[in-house]
Amino acid sequence: MGHPLLDLTNKTAVVIGGTSGIGLALARGLAQAGANVIPTGRRKELVQAASAEVAALGRRSLAQTCDVTDVASVERLLQSVCTEFNSVQILVNCAGRIMRMPTLEVPEAEWNAIMETNLNGTLRACRVFGRHMIEERYGRIINIGSLSSLVGLYEVAAYAASKAAVASLTKSLAIEWATSGVCVNALIPGVLRTDLNAALLDGTERGREFLMRTPMHRFGKPEELVGAAVFLASDSASFVTGHLLVVDGGIMASGVNQ
Ligand code: NDP
User: Fold this and answer.
1) Cα atoms in the Cβ-side hemisphere of radius 13 Å centred on 239
2) Residue from 194, 209, 224, 248 whose mutation best tests the ligand 1 pocket (most atoms within 8 A of CB)
3) Average pLDDT of adjacent 10-residue blocks, the chain of 258 residues
């Protein structure tokens, strides 16, 4: 048995973008910490598989797809989760897309699509679930930022602008909802190899540069975000809001590494 303030037993957690990569690792981790977890995303088979994993860990779940670009689907998700679990205490916003291209060449439609998922999608989920949490006078929202919330990364301007905006939105909501019992924080992962970025990292100069710039000289594993997420999702984070928690093997702390 761990520390009682870190125990998530009887809490309900919705993880949007919880069917792959970081979100799936967080869904498993929150379930291991005791929460009933609803991992969701657009692809039904992945939602069913992730939800079955939660059940296999001995927690309750629900398999319902959700697309953060469609507010009605986010509202339906809240409804279904409330019908089954009464209320939601924890929301993780992990849906994301990225495209690398020189900014002069990025089609406006692709720029908008990245904003639509990463920024507006996060806003939609924060508003739909945040309203419910404010009514319940309790909530923990964890948005997923990126190193590009803080520094520029080459040729991913739309992604970086969206993630810098996610960090800003996190702070704005944190102060608006600070007296409502709803804490809003962001996790800033360093470089983790997932489906999202495998092609950008594997055997590329960019991959080698990231390793050189990471004092620990390795990519992180999605599981290495779990402890930070469990903390932010728990009662122990009751006085933590508007914080960007960086988990990056030291990149943001480092200047020269050799
Ligand atoms: P993955 O591609 O492995 O996972 C993305 C998840 O988001 C999937 O579950 C996907 O399911 C879901 N998703 C995508 N679009 C939508 C949508 N419109 N509505 C609902 N769900 C959606 O990527 P990662 O795990 O790497 O990335 C997760 C988050 O972490 C992203 O926000 C990313 O920016 C961020 N991040 C990743 C880093 C890394 O190094 N990998 C570093 C820093 C941040 P489906 O496609 O079925 O909808």
Assistant:
1) 0
2) 194
3) 92 98 97 98 98 98 98 98 98 96 98 98 99 98 98 97 98 98 98 86 91 94 97 98 98 91
The reported pLDDT for the residue numbered 237 is 98
pLDDT of residue 1: 66
Structure token pair of residue 164: 């810098």
What are the φ and ψ backbone dihedral angles of 39, each rounded to 5 degrees? -85, 130
Q: Where are the beta strands (DSSP E) in the chain?
A: 12-16, 36-40, 90-93, 139-144, 182-189, 244-247
Q: Position of tokens 């303030």? A: 5
For β-strands 36-40 and 90-93, DSSP reports them as: unpaired
Q: Is 144 in the pocket of ligand 1 (CB under 6 A)?
A: yes
pLDDT recorded at residue 182 = 98
pTM score? 0.97
Torsion of CA 77, 80, 84, 85, to 10 degrees: 40
**Which residues are CB-contacts of 25 (< 8 A; sequence separation ≥ 6)?**
221, 222, 223, 225, 226
Asked whether 149 lines ligand 1 (CB < 6 A), one says: no
Distance separating alpha carbons of residues 163 and 156, to the nearest angstrom:
11
59-74 exposure pattern, b = at least 16 Cβ within 10 A, e = fewer: bebbbbbbbbeebebb
Question: Any alpha helices (H) in 57-180, and if so which ranges?
Answer: 71-85, 108-115, 122-136, 157-176
For the Cβ of 66 lying below 6 angstroms from any atom of ligand 1, the answer is yes
